[in-house]
Structure formats: C-alpha cells, structure tokens
Design a protein that fits this description.
The structure is a single chain. The protein is an alpha/beta fold and 433 residues long. 38% of the residues lie in helices and 17% in strands. The chain has 14 helices and 15 strands. The protein has helices spanning 5-16, 50-53, 62-74, 86-98, 113-128, 145-150, 191-202, 230-241, 263-266, 292-295, 311-323, 326-349, 378-390, 415-432; strands spanning 29-33, 36-39, 44-47, 105-110, 132-136, 168-171, 209-215, 244-248, 272-275, 286-291, 353-359, 362-367, 393-394, 396-398, 404-407. The strands form three sheets. It has a seven-stranded mixed beta sheet with strand order 4-10-9-8-7-5-6, sandwiched between helices. A four-stranded mixed beta sheet has the order 1-2-3-13. Strand 5 (132-136), helix 6 (145-150) and strand 6 form a beta-alpha-beta unit. The longest helix is centred in the C-terminal third of the chain and has 24 residues, at 326-349. The radius of gyration is 21 Å and the shape is globular.
C-alpha cells in the first residue's frame, strides 16, 4: 500500500463489503489505547465515542488484555451447552450480586445487546403466558427482528425491512425537553407515567401485556433521561398488573452514568435487567439477569446459542467488573460533573445548544436552530461532528432528529486529552454558531 492507506483500504472495503453497514469515519484503526485511536497512517484521534459506549474502561486496558491472553491459552471455545466452564458461572454470580434487587436472581449470556433483548422478551412471554409487549417512542433496542420492532426510529433501522413482529405497542417516553403531552415538569405530576393506565383501556389490555421494556437512559434516541419519580410510578403500575419490567442497560450500564447501573439513580428495581456493550470491553457479550422465578420458568433447552457466553468474553467481563471498583466509579462521577460544567458553559455561549442532558458522564447536547421553536439543527449537527473529526476528535450524533451530540468518552481519559477534545468541540461549534 502507498502513503494513503485509509483510501486504499476504503477501496477494498467498497469492493468486498456491502454499503449497508454504515461507517461514521473514513479511517481504519491500527491501534487504540485508553481514549486515543491511531489510524493506519499514524494519525491520532481523541475518542469521545468509545466504540458506541463499549470502551467505558478504555481501549486495551491491561487487566482485560491479560485476562484475554490467559484464557486464550487455556481454551477458546467448547460451547457452554456441551462442556461448561467456570468464567460463565462466575460472571453470572457477580452480576446476580451486583444488579439492583436483593431477591434471588439468575443470569444467562448471549453475544449482543439485541440477543439479550430477544431473550428477555422470550422469557417474559413464557413466564407470564401473555403476548403483548410495550416499548417506547425514541427507543433503540437493536437490529434483529424483535429488537428492530421494539426500536422506534424508522430510518435507517427499520426502513424497508417490514413486516415487523406482532403484538408490540408503543407509548411516549418522558422526553421533558419535547414533552409529547405539551406539559412541564414537575407541574405535570408525571402524566406520562399515568398515561399508561389510559393506554390499557384504548390500545391493549393490561392482562395481555407480558412486559414493558425501557432504556434507563435512552441512548440512540438522544440521551433522554426520565424525570425523578417516573420509574417508580412505572414499576408500581407494572406490579399492579403482573407485568414484567425489563430495563435495558446495554448502553447506560457498566459505570457509564457514574454508578454501575443507571437504574440505581432512580431507585428502581427491574424484574429483568439487560447488560452489554462495555460489559466485556469490546468482546461480544451481553447478559440477561432476572428474578430467579422468571429465569427458571423456561423449559430446559429453550434458551441458548453456540457462542453465548464465550469463555474469553466472560473472562474479559470479570476483569471489567474488577476494574469498575468504587474508586473508578467515583472518578466517573467527577468526570460527569466536569463534562456537565463544560457543556453548560458552551450552552451559555452558543445559542445552537438547546439542551444539555444526561446522567454523569453519559451526557449530550441537543442542537436547535432556535431555542423558542426548538427546530432541530440536524444539518448543523452533522457538520459539527465532521469538523470535529477533521481536527482529530471522534464524536457521535444521535436522536430521532439526528441533532444530538453524545459523549461516550472512556472514563479513564487523562485531563490533557479531555481538554484537547473539548477545545476541538468548542472550535467546531464556534464555526457553526
């Protein structure tokens, strides 16, 4: 290859890989460490994306790399269904102990967040003998058929792929910046939660609903955080009707919000909690952890998969949990305070920033053309992300209007790199505002 390795590799990619798997940046990685990615031409980028929320503890953390090497030297795969192995059971035990709730729990592992979602729905339907599932507007739960059906956004995730799975219903999420009911918190008295009872009258009977699945903080939907008290009302309604509450923590878990699970911020205890992304620091792994009575309801052989809970991924997961100790979580909370302060300062200086929101270091800014009308600044958001990349910073956009810049910076980023990343973001906003 010549001097422009990225371009040459891109030509190979175009020739041999279909265009549907979208690429946010036009570069190929050579190595990554901490919060920095180096491309094949030697240029370094500060990473505010973290592999879409996968690298919470940083790229190639030494403890994780060592765990991967050690396990790979012992055995790589036997299939848990054929010959069991200790890392699977040990990681399940750890998650059962760490997830919210003091009741008996059990955990099964799969390869991806979407698979975790699919299995949680299977479990809820099987245990309740009901069929209906309620999801939320702006939700993202994955790209397999049930997960895609539960996902709210049409383009690019659902466009052209119908028909979708039956018996899935959708209600508004508590998006306070753009309240679907035209109300204001706290004067609204959490009308969005009470609306669920009306929904049971007009759309689907409560005794037909197996589960409600909800993200603790909506990720792809725009880093939307429910107001205080919302989840408590939602949980109470679920309990009163025998509905399983599934909380999707695939993006918001593993320290991303300054606590091990975002659910802890709301003092809500789900019946089933889903983990993924950062749980194994880059290896394909996701978990379904739930009440033991729910998890035990399914007949033997009813759940599983060839690669689910791969031993190398499970060993990496144990190393991640060892790393996410109280000290790191405290550091994450301080990072979150730092990020919020910086973004609120930017909001004062740049009228294009309509809202700053998030929990801890899971935080984003919604960009608007006008703060009164809140017209989404979608094109401008794309331009800002592009200019950040040109200057050496990788950021992601999200939101149903594609007008939110989300920050998923590794929790271990050094101050100097964080300062440089925010200087680039500030300069890019200045050019647009």
């Amino acid at each position: 290859m010549g001097n422009n390795k990225n371009q040459e590799l891109m030509e190979l990619r175009k020739k041999h890989v279909p265009p549907a798997p979208f690429n946010i940046t036009p570069i190929f990685v050579k190595r990554a460490k901490g919060a920095v990615i180096e491309d094949v031409e030697g240029k370094e980028y500060i990473d505010f994306a973290g592999g879409i929320g996968v690298e919470n503890i940083g790229h190639c953390t030494e403890k994780v790399v060592d765990a991967i090497k050690q396990q790979a030297e012992q055995f790589i795969h036997t299939c848990f269904h054929v010959v069991m192995y200790e890392p699977y059971v040990e990681l399940a035990k750890r998650l059962n102990e760490l997830t919210p709730g003091t009741f008996p729990k059990k955990t099964m592992f799969v390869n991806s967040g979407a698979e975790a979602v699919e299995n949680s729905i299977k479990i809820a339907r099987y245990a309740t003998k009901r069929q209906a599932i309620i999801a939320f507007e702006n939700a993202f739960h994955g790209r397999t058929y049930m997960a895609m059906t539960l996902t709210s956004q049409v383009n690019p995730y659902k466009w052209g792929f119908g028909p979708f799975c039956p018996e899935v219903y959708r209600i508004p999420f508590p998006y306070c910046y753009r309240c679907p009911f035209g109300l204001k918190y706290p004067d609204c008295n959490l009308h969005c939660a009470d609306y669920l009872e009306k929904f049971f009258i007009s759309y689907v009977a409560a005794d037909s609903v197996a589960a409600i699945i909800v993200e603790a903080v909506q990720g792809e939907g725009g880093f939307i955080v429910p107001p205080p008290g919302y989840f408590n009302k939602l949980k109470a309604i679920c309990e009163s009707h025998g509905i399983v509450l599934i909380i999707d923590e695939i993006q918001s878990g593993m320290g991303r919000t300054g606590k091990l699970f975002a659910s802890e911020h709301f003092n809500v205890i789900p019946d089933i909690i889903l983990t993924g992304k950062s749980i194994a620091a880059g290896l394909p792994l996701a978990g379904v952890t739930g009440r033991a009575d729910l998890m035990d309801a399914v007949h033997v052989g009813g759940l599983g998969g060839t690669y689910g809970g791969n031993p190398i991924a499970c060993r990496a997961g144990l190393a991640v949990l060892d790393t996410l100790d109280d000290k790191m979580l405290e550091s994450a909370r301080k990072l979150g305070d730092n990020l919020r302060k910086r973004l609120l300062d930017m909001q004062k200086r740049y009228k294009i920033i309509g809202d700053v929101r998030g929990l801890g270091p899971m935080i984003g800014i919604e960009l608007v053309k006008d703060r009164e009308s809140k017209e989404p600044a979608s094109d401008e958001t794309k331009q800002i992300a592009s200019r950040c990349f040109e200057k050496g910073l990788i950021v992601l956009t999200c939101g149903v209007y594609h007008n939110v810049i989300r920050i998923l910076v590794p929790l271990v980023i050094p101050d100097a790199q964080l300062d440089q990343g925010f200087k680039i973001l500030d300069d890019s906003l200045k050019q647009i505002n």
